[in-house]
Structure formats: structure tokens, C-alpha cells
From TrEMBL, chains A, B:
PANTHER family from the UniProt entry: HYPOXANTHINE/GUANINE PHOSPHORIBOSYLTRANSFERASE (PTHR43864), PUR OPERON REPRESSOR (PTHR43864:SF2)
Annotated protein name in UniProt: Pur operon repressor
An individual GO BP term: negative regulation of DNA-templated transcription
Lineage, opening ranks: Bacteria, Bacillati, Bacillota, Bacilli, Bacillales
Phosphoribosyltransferase domain segment(s): 105-239
Length: 274, 274
């Protein structure tokens, strides 16, 4: 295989296996090439990936060494995407009766979810994480996109006890927005004890739902490794807020008391950038 | 930019924009290169992608021309992945009381979902499709993975009327397995009239749920462009079966009357291969 073809092949190989340590011998055998040639190829790929902001290529030396592709989308690369998203979210017809906020169409765009997943994967790349968790339904595409870039499994908390999952743990939690009580359930076999869990969700006001997931983690002796939300609402007082340590990509507030006019801005992931 | 770096950059650019027509001028401007050089690069990428089974690179000539990457995973590439999946699915502890089949852990693997999405994207690459549809909850990762590879939006049917989505259409349907009546709902604004819809789901027995989605499409004057299910159950008689035209990746049946011992085999996507 020629170098030019090999570069194409290695690029696609690395991109489909993020956060996976690939020994240089794998490439050497795959292409029947010397390790020194493979190293040169990787140097070229690394330079392009880092220049374009696609991600980092981590090289580990030694017998157990190899190369690992870590997809990235830092705040500077992410900001234009999020600013465009803010404009789309500011459309006045997104406010539904009762103050609900319609973003289902936005969550239905896999390419955008992929970008958002890369942003969360960047934000939490340095943490030790075993699984990505969300509660059904709207956070699911964000959880999968994030987990795909981190090469982690997804654990899905259900809002009811679903009969097809075997024995399960349920907790009650108070949803911040309307002070109503809900139930969430996680199958016993779905999460190992002592897992380090990255929680992601689509929307957060006071943080009742995320707080519920954290309580559920205690039942499994599991730990929170981080919290990421696509949209956080600013319509919440400091006293009401149940959660302070999280990453948000978008912040939404209302201009008028009726709440029909939205102000949508980049979230705390971009704080300190302007 | 050197040719070697350009090949890496073009590969990652194409892979992140599947089923999108990219004019050659976009590349020419992006890299400050002549169109003839770009064409040569694309020929190299095309050869590698097709040899490795990553996908096809479709080149359209003329003023409105350009290049389009179509991710592929044909039956020959897919079979080893599905055979491994069959072995995992055959584990006896997957059968839960009531004859339910536990696959939540499998659905929680984003890399596998990505492969499965590529298989469905291959199977339906030739059809005209506007959106990918599924019903919550377990089909969601399959729908997103499929839609990502086809560059299409996802439309999610809910099992209850969710207050945050505005006006909606509901239908009742009979679930084949237990002859019980359920409701599914789709927001009016979620689907345009006359859309061509690819329906995907995680599991199908008689086809009641998929049939329900098809009935819902009629309410929107929309059309079925195809049906793909990850697992189809063979424990259903010909008369019971509501659906005949679909693609399945896995077939599951039971050996014994109690249904504790599963037989899991590749689905109809692989028919005629052995």
C-alpha cells in the first residue's frame, strides 16, 4: 500500500475508533509497513487533526504503547456552532403554553448532536469516566453522541419501571420547574457498583432531574464524574438551584414577564471567552 | 498544504459529512489547490474507501457537480459483526420472566449502534428518504445512527402525549405480543406532509408497533420508504405477521416450549449469502 493510500486508511481507521489505544504493530501488520513509516504517517495525521481542531492524537511510547485519537471541539471551535444554534433557538414560536420550550426539531438533527457530543467529549476528556448516563427521552441522542466520542457505554434511566429489564431500583424526585413528584428507574444489571458516571441531559432549570440521577447513583455506590446539559434555564433563583458544578452549552432566559420573548446565549462552556 | 496532509484533511472532512454533495471548488478553495489535484486526491480516497468497505465516493460531473461520501457496510462486511452479536444475544440469562428479551446492554454500545446504523444506511442507500422515524425508547440509538450516516433528521414518536411538543396526532395500536392496546403520538410540527419515511426499531414480533407507525404516517399523508429492525422474532405465525417488507439484521427463535433457550441467527439482510 502506498503512503498516500495508507494515510487515508489510517485516518478513517482512527476516526472510527476514538479513545481506543491502537498499538503501532496493528498498523504495521495491517499495511505491511515498518513501524518507522507508521510513526511518520501518524505525525502527519496528528498535525492535521490538531490544526483543524478535529482532535488530538496521543502517542504512548513503550511496549504497551500505541496511539489514541481523542476527538475534540474546544470552545473556540464550538462557539460558531453554538451561536448559530442560539439564533435558531431564539425563534419566538418555540415558547409553548405553560412556558415549555420546543427544541425537539433541534434534537432531531444527528449532525448537530454529533457536534454537541464532541463538545462534551472535549469538556470531559480529562476525567476518568466509565459510562455516560441520561434519563429518557430527549437527552438520549446527546448521551449517545457524547459516549461515541469517548468510546463509552450509555446507561439509560427510565421514567417508569419497564418490565423488560429485570429487577430495578426506583427513586422519587421533585422536578424543579413544577414541584411535581416523578419516578425514575434503573435496572440493577445496567450499572456496575463504583462506576464513574458522566450525566448528560437536554435541559436543566433548577436541576431536579439531574439531582434525581445523582441520588440514583448513590443506590449503586456509583460516583458522578461530571454533568453536561445542552440548555440551562436562567429563570431560576440561586436558592432554587440544586446543582452548581456542570457544563452548559446554551443559556436561555426570558426578557418579558410573560416569557414569550427568549434570550438565548452560549452557556458556561464559553465563559471567559469574550 | 502538502498532498499528504491534504489527503488526511479531505478524508476526515468527507467522513464527517456523509450523503452531502461537496463541490470540488470547496476543496480547491479550502486547500488553495488546483481542481485537477483535488480530483487526483479524491481518486485515491475513493479507492481506499471502496477497498476497505468504508463506503462509496460518488463523483458528479458538471457545474452542479462535486463529490458525495456514502457510508457503506454491505452484508459481507456486516456478517462478522452480526455473527458476534448473535453469540452475545444467545446468552441464556437474556430471557426474562414473561418471555422478554434483555438487550439493553447491547443497545447501550454506541460503537455497535454506529455499525448497525451503517448497515441500515447501506440497505436503504438507494431509496429516496426524507426522515428516519422510530418510537421511543429503545429504537432511538439505532434511528440516530442510521440517520447520521444518511444525513437525515430523526422524527421520534412518543408513547404518551408529551406536553412540551404542542398539538399532536395520536393513534391506538394493538401490540402483537400481548394483544394489548397502546397509544402513540406525534407532534404536528414534527413531520411535514408527503415525507418519505424510513422506520427503524429495535425489536419486532408480529409488527404491531411498526404497523402503528405506518398508520400514523397516513395521518400526515406521509409514505413508508422502508422498514428496518435490529431483531425480528420468529415466534410468530404467518397469519399473525402484520408486515412482510422489512430488513432485519438478527433473527431470534426459541428451541424449547418454555422459551428459555434462544437460537439467534443473522437476519434477512444476509439471506442468500450462505
Amino acid at each position: 500500500m502506498k503512503r498516500s493510500a495508507r494515510l487515508v486508511e489510517m485516518t478513517q481507521y482512527l476516526m472510527t475508533k476514538p479513545h481506543t489505544l491502537i498499538p503501532l504493530t496493528t498498523f504495521a501488520e495491517r499495511y505491511g509497513a515498518a513501524k518507522s513509516s507508521i510513526s511518520e504517517d501518524l505525525a502527519i495525521i496528528k498535525e492535521v487533526f490538531e490544526e483543524e481542531g478535529t482532535g488530538e492524537l496521543l502517542t504512548l511510547a513503550g511496549a504497551a504503547g500505541g496511539v489514541k485519537f481523542m476527538p475534540k471541539c474546544g470552545p473556540d471551535k464550538a462557539l460558531p456552532v453554538i451561536e448559530e444554534l442560539c439564533t435558531v433557538m431564539e425563534q419566538p414560536d418555540r415558547v409553548l403554553p405553560g412556558g415549555y420550550f420546543y427544541i425537539t426539531d433541534i434534537l432531531g438533527q444527528p449532525a448537530l448532536m454529533n457536534d454537541i457530543g464532541r463538545m462534551f467529549a472535549s469538556a470531559f476528556a480529562g476525567r476518568e469516566i466509565d459510562v455516560v448516563m441520561t434519563v429518557e427521552t430527549k437527552g438520549i441522542p446527546i448521551a449517545y453522541a457524547t459516549a461515541a466520542h469517548l468510546n463509552l457505554p450509555v446507561v439509560l434511566v427510565r421514567r417508569d419501571h419497564v418490565v423488560t429489564e429485570g429487577s430495578a431500583v426506583s427513586i422519587n424526585y421533585v422536578s424543579g420547574s413544577h414541584k411535581s413528584i416523578h419516578t425514575m428507574t434503573l435496572a440493577r444489571r445496567a450499572l456496575k457498583e463504583r462506576s464513574r458516571v458522566l450525566i448528560v441531559d437536554d435541559f436543566m432549570r433548577a436541576g431536579g432531574t439531574v439531582h434525581g440521577m445523582i441520588e440514583l447513583l448513590h443506590e449503586f455506590n456509583a460516583m458522578v464524574a461530571g454533568v453536561g446539559v445542552l440548555v440551562e434555564s436562567e429563570d431560576v433563583s440561586k436558592e432554587e438551584r440544586l446543582l452548581h458544578d456542570y457544563v452548559s452549552l446554551v443559556r436561555v432566559g426570558t426578557k418579558d414577564p410573560g416569557g414569550r420573548q427568549l434570550v438565548v446565549q452560549p452557556g458556561n462552556y464559553f465563559d471567559g471567552m469574550k
